[in-house]
Specification:
Two copies of one chain form a homodimer.
Chain A lengths: L8 E6 L3 H4 L7 E14 L11 E7 L9 E6 L8 H10 L10 E10 L1 H5 L2 H6 L10 H8 L4 E6 L11 E8 L3 H11 L11 E11 L2
Helix pairs in contact in A: 5-6
Chain lengths: ~210, ~210
């Protein structure tokens, strides 16, 4: 029997949060960041991170009950749109997580889709991920960048905390690939190339340095 | 703009639970049941309900933080396998929730699937729901009973409480249709008709009367 797929619960907290001062007993992999900037792309701001502030990520195998001061959080889930060929191709070509360092950038983008999206049946949503005449679609766009940009999708829509975002998307790359990353964002947001984005009603970017 | 799809959080509690004595302030639709029997079908028992005990369902528009004494709980989510034609057909033909009464039965079946299921890509899981030569599949089996048996699927796999079940499936029917319901269960569990069931590692039935 193969190992079960990993299930992770991920929490981003301001490093100065009172919660973290007392969190030594929490079993988690800790990653440290410095905030460079934040940009409201669509809709409202769902979290506040000031340039220069320190941020900590707790990467856990189990959820942490009653954690306070959380800025953004989500959990990994089973694949909802990738088919077996796409899953295997992405596993073969995708960049791994980058080491912390002066040239390692991380970007966190919480996203909320509108009610019309969630009313769609599965085949209607899936069609947006694959190519069709006149549009490239989310999966094909993403595959072109997978070798240079580490990606992780966290789900939040069904969290009991009911946050104002459905997903926390997380990226890492070498700063030399910053223009590739902004090109990826531009293509995903191009509603001709990727009509899925018509359903995005809130999107906010947090640009970080991964320092430890 | 159409209304968003309903999102409901559902909690089943022993009616004698201390929590319920103090729950008057919880905004929920309350439904009352009497337990008739429980059956461990596969795997371990995940909840205990004694014959004759009273059970209460809290049906909520928002999650309830810190609710204790919960026997089973889950939330409604977006469609993960139904295509638009199946969704529309089921909406047209499906039985509505039944009124409480002496002839109204309810059955709750928590289910957990194994790690191999959750490792599958989406197209691999979807294939189990649709017919193919030699097998009918989950969706087609279910459609034949949808007019007589009210069904609701609740998800629990990603709850922060990390319960030992992935789904809480809930059914209601008139006791005159009991044999139809047991036929439905038999067909879903027939691994030739429905090979999906090879991945089910825990399944327990709770048979109830819906009394109020």
């Amino acid at each position: 029997m193969l190992a079960p797929p990993p299930r992770n619960w991920v929490y981003f907290l301001n490093s100065a949060a009172e919660e973290l001062r007392h969190s030594a007993q929490i079993s988690a992999r800790r990653t440290h960041y410095v905030v460079e900037s934040s940009v409201v792309v669509r809709g409202e701001s769902v979290a506040s991170m000031v340039a220069g502030a320190e941020l900590t990520r707790l990467f856990c195998d189990s959820p942490i009950a009653g954690l306070n001061d959380v800025l953004l959080a989500g959990s990994s889930q089973h694949l909802q749109y990738a088919n077996a060929a796409q899953r295997d191709h992405l596993a073969a070509v995708s960049a791994k997580e980058f080491s912390a360092g002066a040239t390692t950038r991380a970007v966190i983008i919480p996203i909320r889709k509108n009610a019309a999206w969630w009313r769609l049946a599965h085949d209607e949503r899936l069609a947006f991920f694959n190519p069709s005449p006149g549009k490239e679609g989310h999966t094909t766009i993403g595959e072109r960048y997978a070798g240079r940009i580490f990606r992780q999708l966290l789900h939040a829509r069904y969290d009991a905390a009911k946050p104002p975002y459905d997903f926390v998307t997380y990226f890492e790359f070498n700063e030399a690939d910053t223009s590739a990353f902004t090109a990826l964002l531009g293509e995903l947001r191009d509603e001709t190339l990727n009509p899925e984005w018509r359903y995005v009603e809130m999107e906010q970017e947090f640009w970080l340095r991964k320092v430890g």
